[in-house]
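URGENT: need a sanity check before tomorrow's submission.

F., can you look over the Histidine decarboxylase proenzyme record below? I want to be sure the sequence and structure line up before it goes out.
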Amino acid sequence: MPNNPTPGDIKSVVRNAIGPMEEYAMGYLNPVGTNPAPTPSSQGTGYIATMKLSVGTVKIDEADILDEGTENIVSYDRCEATDANISQINMGTASSFCGLNGALWGYHLAEAELPKTPVFTVPANGGGSKSLDVYDATPLLDATYRLFGTVDVPRHPPLPGAHVICANKSVTVRGPSYAWAFIAIAIADDPTESNLFIEDCGEFPARPYETNGTKTVFPTGDQVKDLLLKHEWAVAKSVQMCGADYRKKAYSKMFAVSRAVYAAPGEVGSALACAPYVLLAQNDLPTKWTTDKLVDSDLATWQSARWSDKLPDYPYPDRSVVGAPKEQP
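Structure tokens as predicted:
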């Protein structure tokens, strides 16, 4: 018998978010078909939102045949393949909400070890908005990393060639410069409201300079981290203002994370923030598990039940700056 989905009921959402492939995730709204065991009742009407933030660089002289367009393509593809692997997909762009027919991987199911203390709090401004606690979202990126695996240690990534709707933004820069990306999700206080994704990307131009015989680059990696933190504050304020527009009750908790990459002279750098909306692979369910157990279990329990191999630890903390040049005497 079909399992009739109930909007806003996380267990119902997840029961209806298992795709037709055993070893691959599929994009939301891709055909589900008969969807054989182990989840014959899934209708594909629910989806699992995941979070990914990646950066990459390409040396312009890697191949003489590269031009500006192909440099952009290669650097962007490296972002897709870095850490959580979503390479080779047809990425469609969606507006940025995780609604009542969606569940966030690492938060609503297979719960990651989320921080208890906010990085900062944006106080209520007296205009009907709530105070907003902002937490580090790195554990949610780690959860996606452990779901999809990497190019070298594959788990169940999206099917190559699948059409995958994503909330996404990206940027490509030419060195010397920093490409940066930011992603956040604000959790709705009211379960009848939608959770809000925010993605943003940009560039911090860089230039070399020398002071008292010391050569470095301005801004330095530490200065870029400060710039990213200031941007997180600005994004949090925008979320607070949006929440005031949504019947003045939407958000008091947000998870956010940012990253940058330095592209040296002769390099192209890209940064990608995206939230793929997927149907899980059938074999994401450990043996004898139900989707309800997946909702009730934490990420560590799911991983130990499903995978005998061990991925390397997720390598990027919040506001990490990849490839930032060090001062040289």
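My own read: The chain has one domain: 10-322. The longest helix spans residues 221-245. If you see anything odd, call me.
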